[in-house]
Design goal:
Blueprint (H helix, E strand, L loop, with lengths): L19 E11 L2 E13 L1 H17 L6 E10 L8 E8 L6 E2 L3
Antiparallel strand pairs: 1-2, 1-3, 3-4, 4-5
Length: about 110
C-alpha cells in the first residue's frame, strides 16, 4: 500500500477477508472555519477492489475542480467498516493549486 498514501505498519496482520471503506471528502473554509463535505463513500471493498478504486479516485480527483471555498480533497481508507482513527489504512490529500497527492500521518 506504500504507493497509495500512508501505510499501516501492521499490513502483515490484516485479515485475508478484511473489508475496507473509502471516503472522499472536500474540505472547505466557510467563515474562517474548516468543514468537511463527503463527496463519495464506498463500503465493503475487498483488498484488490480497494487498491484499484483508491488509485482510480486519486486520478479522478487530481483533475476535479474545487468548489469556490474548497481547500483540499481528502481520500481516506478505513478498515473494519469503522470510521475510527485507529482503523485508518491509508490517507492522502490534494491541496488547491497542487498537482500532487500528499501523505499525512494519522
Amino acid at each position: 500500500m506504500r504507493d497509495y498514501g500512508q501505510t499501516n505498519i501492521f499490513d502483515d496482520v490484516i485479515r485475508e477477508d478484511e473489508t475496507f471503506v473509502i471516503v472522499v471528502q472536500e474540505v472547505t473554509e466557510h467563515n474562517s472555519q474548516l468543514q468537511k463535505r463527503v463527496l463519495r463513500e464506498y463500503p465493503s471493498l475487498k483488498m484488490e477492489g480497494m487498491k484499484n478504486l483508491f488509485s482510480h479516485l486519486r486520478d479522478v480527483y487530481m483533475e476535479e475542480p474545487f468548489s469556490e471555498e474548497g481547500k483540499y480533497f481528502d481520500i481516506t481508507v478505513y478498515t473494519n467498516e469503522d470510521y475510527a482513527g485507529d482503523n485508518i489504512y491509508a490517507h492522502t490529500k490534494r491541496y488547491r493549486n497542487s498537482k500532487e497527492w500528499t501523505t499525512t500521518s494519522k
